[in-house]
Amino acid sequence: MKWDKLSQRQFTTFRFPRKDRDWAVGEEVKITYKGRTKDKAVLGIARIIGKEEDATGASLTDQVAIADGFPGGVRDMERWMMKTYGFERTFDQMNKLTVEWVEGEK
C-alpha cells in the first residue's frame, strides 16, 4: 500500500545526502515505490521545491514523521531506519525535501 502523502500535490520526504552531489531545489526527481526491490514501480516525476539540511533532532517531530507515513511517529520512523540502514546510519544527517508532482501520481 502506498503512503497517503503521495496523493498530495506537494509532500515531504527524507533522504540522505548523495555522495556525487547533494539534492538541489529545482531538481526534478523520479518518485518510486519500493525503489530498492524487484517490485519497484515508477510513480512519476517531481520537482524539489524546498530543502532543509540536517533534518534530525528537534525538527523531527511525531507530526512530521506521521505525515511522512509512520503512524507511530518518530519511534516508528527510527525503527524503520535501523532495520533498513543499520543503527549507525540512523543518526546521520538527512535532508527533508519538499517536492511537487510534475507528472504522475498526484
Give an overview of the whole structure.
- With 106 residues, the chain is of the alpha+beta class.
- The longest helix is centred in the last third of the chain and has 12 residues, at 74-85.
- The chain is 17% helix and 32% strand.
- Strands 1-4-3-2 form a 4-stranded antiparallel beta sheet, with no helix packed on it.
- The mean pLDDT is 85.
- A hairpin with a 7-residue loop joins strand 2 (28-33) and strand 3 (41-52).
- The chain is globular and about 35 Å long.
- The protein has one domain: Archaeosine Trna-guanine Transglycosylase, Chain: A, domain 4.
Short description:
With 106 residues, the chain is of the alpha+beta class.
Task: Please describe the structure with a list of short key phrases separated by commas or semicolons.
single chain, 106 residues, alpha+beta, Archaeosine Trna-guanine Transglycosylase, Chain: A, domain 4, 2 helices, 4 strands, 17% helix
Itemize the secondary structure elements and their pairings.
Layout: E1 10-15, E2 28-33, E3 41-52, H1 62-67, H2 74-85, E4 95-104
Antiparallel strand pairs: 1-4, 2-3, 3-4
